[in-house]
From TrEMBL:
One of its GO terms (molecular function) is mitochondrial ribosome binding. This is Translation factor GUF1 homolog, mitochondrial. Signal peptide: none annotated. It is found in: Mitochondrion inner membrane. Its EC number is 3.6.5.n1.
Amino acid sequence: MVRLVKHLFAVNPTKIYYRYVIRRQSSSDASKKEIDVRRIRNFSIVAHVDHGKSTLADRLLEITGVIKPGAERAQVLDQLQVERERGITVKAVTASLNYTYNNETYLLNLIDTPGHVDFANEVVRSVTACQGVIMLVDANEGIQAQTVAVHNLAKRNNLVIIPTLNKVDLPRANPDKVKKQLKQVFNIDENSVLSISAKKGWGVPELLQSVIERIPPPAVESEGHFRAHIIDTWHDKYRGVLCLAYIHSGRVQVGQAVKWSSDSKVNTVRHLALLRPDEEAIEEAVAGQVVMVGCGPKGGGGVGEQLLSKELAESGAVTGMPPVKHMVYAGIFPADQSQHAMVSDAIRKLALNDSAVSVSPDSSPALGQGWRIGFLGLLHLEVFTQRLLQEHKAEAILTAPSVPYKVKIKGAKLLKQYRTDVILITNPLQLPDPNNIEEYYEPFVLGTIITPVEFIGAVTTLCIDRRGAPLPSSAVDDQMTMLQFVLPLAEVVVDFHDTLKSITSGFASFDYQDNGFHPSPLVRMDILLNGSLVDELSTIVHASRLEYNARRLTEKLKAMIPRQMVQVAIQAVVGGKVYARETIKAYRKDVTAKLYGGDVTRRKKLLKQQAEGKKKMRSVANIKIPRDTFIDVLKKQ
């Protein structure tokens, strides 16, 4: 070994000597600081939107020495540009912190999660790597709809919940009232609720001590075969796919042979690091830790997959996480077809980092080749397109969003074609002929609304107008009520949240969960321009909303499509029946303007020639919609 070092030292003394020292130091540190699983704590911060999760994460980073107190940059874990511009958390971010308590050093794996319902998938993945959560509740606003959702999620995963009131330093804070709400809704003992001010740091050290005392260490197998599941992935320009993994059993080292649960290929662990939140390279990680793993440019898996030791992978199959249920689908097309390859690469990399989206090829006669992408909601859709532009410089055109439907088909020929009697429809153009459809199914959600009692009537009216079915309500306290409705997803994703905030002066909060598909009278509405079908404007609507949607869309098209040399008839059609029509008048040329007298037959002759010319033009003309106008119609539909 000495000769080898001397030989390499002669070749490149500075570089090789530096590498040798670092490797030797790392291995000695690993032997001296063997991590005791009993001193590992994995926990997440969960809460409703704007209840102070990222601010609390900043205070925890300060207490553990990761950042200096009073750092200029707030919300350190919100690293994306879109997060800073919108003031929301989009990605769950991990930070491994060292903290000394009672003369013992603990490893705290903190995961800061989003609060908006559109990013609930990030929270679901995060809690799979935790044994407990800090449930933050704003001491001014009290329990909100997302608070109920994250509490139920934590209970389903058998996690320890540390209820914590934040913003107790504000003048309007009412901790006693909110504690009673927690008792009323969740049956939480008021004495177990902590009170903090994440902004000023009040009570945060005590909260950190409660994390160590209340949350148990991970129940893992330290001596078994290596097995970890992936909770996040992202792409690095030089190192390829990097994964955030929670280790269930065994240990992993740099250079170890591993396999993905979905692939038979053997990979080698090339990169191993703790996120503090910046990367800190390590040589070995043990069960119970949350670590970053990289297997090189060609060795990447997906979120929900498992990373296994070679021996365990060859012994049998393992299961992954359940698939994500997408709520909204939209078409994304490059602004210029010459940029198709660049936009495709950008979408692939972003989809790797955002596992909640689904991507499939799509095409349009007007917009060219593109993709049909599934999202968890409209905010998710907006953030995805904004990240495309900011992080990858990819300009994309977004079509009108739609929700997925299901249809039950009949006929042996179609059954043989689809191999099932119920098919999922993410694009109206995929609908079979109505004569071959036995029944339509529409997606519904279970909506939870927490509102002041004085707005119960307005909220109930709104939900019933949106075809909602009420469920039993319950009181949060003497001023707030929790209402629940089963609502069609199509009525929720567009403007329901904005309307709810408007009629309740901003005091109501809304959260929804998937409630499956239910039979519903649906029809496909097509748009014809002078008798020609425009594929991109076809929609699936409820029968009770057919006339309203037909009038609204035809009027909008009339306002946006420019006048042509011929008259343009805009028709909303269902099954050959016209439900709404608007007409765009043609440009008119006064062919008799040059006449200043003479016989009337001359005037009649010119008008007859003009009429014959227009008739011939109508028979051969194609209605050309300028691309920009067509895009505006799709986006504002």
